[in-house]
Design goal:
- This protein has 323 residues and is an alpha/beta fold.
- It has two domains: 147 residues; 142 residues, Rossmann fold (3-Layer(aba) Sandwich), CATH 3.40.50.
- The protein is 38% helix and 26% strand.
- The strands form two sheets. It has a five-stranded antiparallel sheet with strand order 2-1-5-4-3. It has a five-stranded mixed sheet with strand order 7-8-6-9-10.
- β3 and β4 form a beta hairpin.
- It is elongated.
- The N terminus is likely disordered.
Amino acid sequence: MPKQKSDPEKDNQIEKELNEIKTDIIKVVVLSIFDENGPTPKVFWPKDLDENAGLLIAMKTISLLMGDATYQNGTGTEGVNYFGILPFPDLKLNGLTYFFLIPDLDARGKALAATITVLIDETDKVFFYQNMKYLRVIIDRTAIEIQNSENLNDKIKIIDNLKDELFEFTKELKDPFSTKRQLKLVLTGLDKAGKTSFLLGIRRKYSEIIKALPTKGVERSEENIFEEQNSLISIWDLAGQKQYRERFLEQSKIYLYNIDLLFFFIDIQDVERINDALDLLRRILTSLIELEEFPPIIVCLNKFDPDLKGNEEIFKNLSELFN
């Protein structure tokens, strides 16, 4: 029997589909609300989610997290919110659920109990623990948008945006289920502050420093350290040109998320842009606070050449920096 010839296009399509299956971490997203019919899955993805599965998710998340007299006294919706990780063995899923209240003057206690639940395969629950900081931020923000929404269509759009944001985030993860410790080190500052040259220096690639070109976008590299401790250091060199730094600030949830150590570089010879550098540092600090990220930060006063030792203007700039 003659051997069938391989179809490269078909093979590539099959490989693509297998990779998509492998990287589709998020399986279900549900907004549940306790309305006049009880716990109800109001908005959900995928659209063809089994009705019984949706009801199970709504009933379990609201009943387990609502507790007794959570909002019966009608004292307001602020402060009544918390996360929980719940197993759904019947569905072979694991869920990260956020319980919160939606203001409603017609409801008992002037509020409706609600949950946002993100579900993944039960075997992949390490994903929640590895990425909890990021997930808490965007789900909490989504809940606030739901509280301020006026109708069901608005809620549908908000949950759809959450789903898209989760998908975007998971695509950025190289190995979302790895138990290997990854340390994220970020280098940032204005352009020409010496970030890339610093990296080349610590790697002892001195000959490459003089021909180093400005970084565009973000340069990512990985270094193996502490092999016996199963650790890896991921270095993110963020470009300092205005268009690139605006981009990474807008997408801070990706670039400034889960940082273990941040280096901020200031070129002390670039007198005219020192205030710009400090403004960038303030914006980065604001973004980190919003993300509830509090990594150690090392501010590097760069390009302090030996011939500047007695330069009064440089020392004046240094004193202003520390004030």
